[in-house]
Amino acid sequence: MAKVHPNSAVPSLELPRLATCGNGADSSAAGRKENAAVLTVWRKSLLFSCNGFTVFDAEGNLAFRVDVYGSGTPEDLVLMDAAGKPLLTVRRKKLSLGEKWLMYGGEDTVNPIYVVKRRVTLLPSKPTAAIAHVAQCRGGGPGYEVEGSYSRRSCTIYDKRRLVVAEVRPKEAVGGVAFGGDVFRLVVHSDLNACLAMGILITLDQMFR
Asked: Where does the chain cross the membrane (predicted)?
């Protein structure tokens, strides 16, 4: 069986604080490509009888994990680092118009940091159609648009300047072995925090599962 994690040499991931942008990031196309972190996302928990996500960095080291106990749809999804430290919590907003999800720092579920709203489009097959919008709950910081198709593992996250800050892409077959839809790539550019990118990905998975 082919390895889930990448074999190519790409920059390894440094786990940052939950934030919107890095300080002093290179905004040029060459600089952003060079600083991109390529993560391999496995839609499976490493724990027995659990669902969730296991995320590896470019060298095959565990970077993030989500462990969901039991069956059914959980109320909260907690993104953790490799050591099991909670980084953020994703929860669906109840009694709201449309489909909205809230992201909290750590295990806090009182003061949301971001809200992700699903957008209904009349042209779901259009590759540039927005499927979700991400906004800060306080402070009026930068927002993000998600376009493409999560079910096809082919979508792009843009900031309000229309710069690509993250991409979800299929995982290339290795040695003729295809991985299927449960193993795919998350490419995070220097403009976006990797923790926030994973929070958006988890939310998309809940919206379009």
From this structure: none
pLDDT digits (tens, 9 = 90+) for 45-94: 988 878 899 999 999 999 999 998 866 677 899 999 999 999 999 999 88
Q: Which structure tokens are listed for 183?
A: 């193993």
Radius of gyration of the chain (CA): 16
Domain boundaries, the chain: 29-208
Residue 121, C-beta contacts closer than 8 angstroms, at least 6 positions apart: 129, 130, 131
**pTM for the model:** 0.81
**What is the DSSP code string of 107-121?**
T--SS-SEEEEE---
State the DSSP code for 102.
Answer: E
b/e map of 137-155 (b: 16 or more CB within 10 Å)? Answer: eeeeeeebbbbbbbeebeb
What's the CA gap between 188 and 12, in Å, rounded? 11
Could you tell me which CATH number the domain at 29-208 has? Answer: 2.40.160.200
Q: Are 69 and 22 in contact (CB under 8 A)?
A: no
Beta strands in 75-196 (DSSP E): 76-81, 86-92, 100-105, 114-118, 130-136, 144-149, 154-159, 164-170, 183-188
